[in-house]
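Example 4.3 (complexes with small molecules)
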Amino acid sequence: MTLILSKLKSHVRDTVGEGLRLCGLSSPSIWARDRLTIATFHRVLPRELLEHYPLPAIAVTPEELDHFLAVFQEHYTVGSLQETAQLLASASHDGKPPLAVTFDDGQIDNHQFARPVLRSRGVHASFFVVSEAAEDGELLWHDRMAFAIHHAIGTGAKGLDHWLGELGVAKSAGDPVPLAVTAAKQLTPAERDGLIRRLEQLAGKPVRPDWDGMMNWDQVRELLDDGHEIGSHSARHPILPLVDDDTLEVEVAGSRQRIEAQVQRPVLSFCYPNGDHDDRVVDAVRRAGYSQAVTTLYGINSRQSSPWTLRRVDLQGRYGRNAQGGFASGALLVRLSGRMPGAR
Ligand SMILES: [Zn+2]
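Answer. The structure with zinc ion bound is encoded below.
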């Protein structure tokens, strides 16, 4: 049923894309004029690793990334968030509309697999790194949890159902990994850490595959040397509206100082972990000296949009493909228009 629905959805997207093209509306030069479009990526994993990654919805393959970049370059002036935000602000810009390429979380695959594709296309991007994770190399909590559950399922570990039940995740509801990660976002950091430790014990160690890890500072500096922007994605990737004032300061201003000390360059862009923000969090980002901040709200930005709550367009591999599974641009352009009905 889910498969049929998803096929139907991609047919609808293809048709909508074709319809827009026939009406002459499929060109971003019309809808994205004087707008800033910001594309979001997370993981970039070759097919053989993607098959072993338990949250595949937040990953694209290098081939898919290359296809996305080719479509971007055809229709947009492509660059990092800082570069394209400046383009939007400059009244003299009369070329193709600006589009920023952003990568969240700072995992090692960004350096290993996204970097060569960006280099071959001559595209600059923004990478949002989690300062403590770059420092100690520990995976972010959603990956730790996902690998632990994935491993526990694989080994048939007893007790998993109990913890999934504690999170309110029913086995019959679908893939329990993303459901459990979503449910765990409601827990306090201490509750979540405790749960992850129990799941890791249940799975047996090690749950982290050899190929995975976080970018270290040397790798982050290599991205900078390539012309990419390094932004902050907080110190530890907590849900910021849930942390106290002192922790918020460490996460927002502290992460900026830590990254700047390592890259010896001003850090001007911030990315809210999980997209979560409220007035208190936005105010902390502004006070810390960032020029702009991105959310996970779907849409594109005008010159009047607040630079502290910029909308983005999250891209998954399926948006670059037609119903037959081949590369296509119609569905992608509809997604990039920021006007896909009901989209998040
Ligand atoms: Zn993140």
